[in-house]
Amino acid sequence: MLKKKSILLLCLCSSMCMLVGCAGSRDLSEEQRDVIAEYSAGVLLQHYSGYSRKLEKQEGMAPVETEQPAAAIPEPTKQPEAPADQSAEESGTEEEEIVNEVSLDDLYQVEGMKVSYDSYVVCKSYPKKSSMFQLTAKKGKRLLIVRFQVKNATSKKLKVDLVKRKISYSLDMDGTVYDPSIAIQENGGLNFLKTNLKPGASESAILVYEIPEDAKEANSLVLTVKDKQNVSTIQVK
After folding, report:
1. Segment 190-200, tens digit of pLDDT
2. Smallest Cα–Cα separation from 203: which of 162, 160, 232, 165?
3. Of 5, 67, 127, 220, which is least surrounded by CB within 10 A?
4. Beta bridge partners of 135
C-alpha cells in the first residue's frame, strides 16, 4: 500500500514539473498555474480509493434566456361613419301636409246633400224660446251659434249620417281657436248630423261654441272645416 502511494506521489510531482515547465514557457500567471496543478492532481488521484475528492464533471452553462419582445397588437381600424341623411339636415322640418281647399259639398261627399253657411249669433241661451233642446251658457260665458242650411237636392228621400266622419270644425276668433261643443239638437248639430230629408226639403244645422263673455265683440271670425286632407274655410265675420 505504501509502495502504491509512493508511486502516485512520484507521478504527481513529475506531472507538476512538466506542467510548470510548459506554463513557464507560455508565461502563465500564478492563478492559471494553480488551476493547472489542481486539475492534474485530480486526474492522478481520482482512481485512488482513499482520495475523497473526485473530479467533478462540469456542466455546460445554461443558455441565457432573452426576453422576446411582445407581439404588437394591431389597433382596430375605425370604420368610417355613415353619412347623415342630408335631406333631413337640409330640410330641418317635417314634410308639410298637403291640404286641398274644397267646397263644403265636396268635403262632405254626400250625394244629393247641399250645405251652405247661413248666419251666426252670440247669446246667453239658444233658442230664445223655451224648448226641450234649449242650450244655456255657463256663468261668465256666452254661446256663439253658427247656423247652416242642409238641403236635399234630389227627388228622393236622403239619409245623412256624419256621426262617424270625425270632421273637425275650428273657429278662429281674433287669433284664439275654439272647438265646438255638443249641440243638444234633434238632428245632433252639424258636427254630429244625423237626419232624414224629404225630396227638396232643408233644415237648420248648427255649431255651438262657448266663448268668454268679453269676447262677444270679436272683430274676426273664421271657421275651418277639415276632413282628412280636404279643407273648407268660411269667413263668418
Report:
1. 999 999 999 99
2. 160
3. 67
4. 126
